[in-house]
Predict the 3D structure of the following.
Amino acid sequence: MKNLWDQKRASKLENNPLQLRVYSSQLLGLNSDLVMHGGGNTSIKLRESNIFGEEEDILYVKGSGRNLFNISSEDFTPLRMKHMKKLMKFTNISDKIMVLEQQVAMTNPEAPSPSVEALLHAIIPFCWIDHTHADAVVTLTNTPKGEKLIQDLYGNRFLIIPYIMPGFKLARKVYEITQKVDWQKYEGMILLN
């Protein structure tokens, strides 16, 4: 896989983290081996002032149905992190309720609907998150021995999450699994299937 990162272009965007996130998302989207049909999700967490001058943590996550290869800043949905994280107090809510609560968390009602995986992005404690559907990894994970194949290949470098349909249940499972995890020990997370 060829690294398409252009440091000269990226350095021009350093003062605008969302635009830098747009640029890096487009690079992921250009590689169809990573994001079939423009899929996958990216996000960035920023601190911003609201209309009252109060600082808030905001998650900008790729809007549902948007393609990474031609994504723009308007294609990211801004969500209040405080509201998103409070949803993890529930042990079970329907995806319908989760979607409605994500809409409540939006700071811009004209933004696209947030990805069903926005809550997962909110609970992972990193500023930048890349969620891809890499062909090579999916080929291994979508087999009966997928977990063993991934462990044989990567050892303990990745958190491996059993298959759960994307939505609240997946976010809740990751939340439960990672409560006592030292995230710095891992290079990433692999969701089986």
Notes: The two ends are 22 Å apart (CA to CA). The chain has a mean pLDDT of 94.
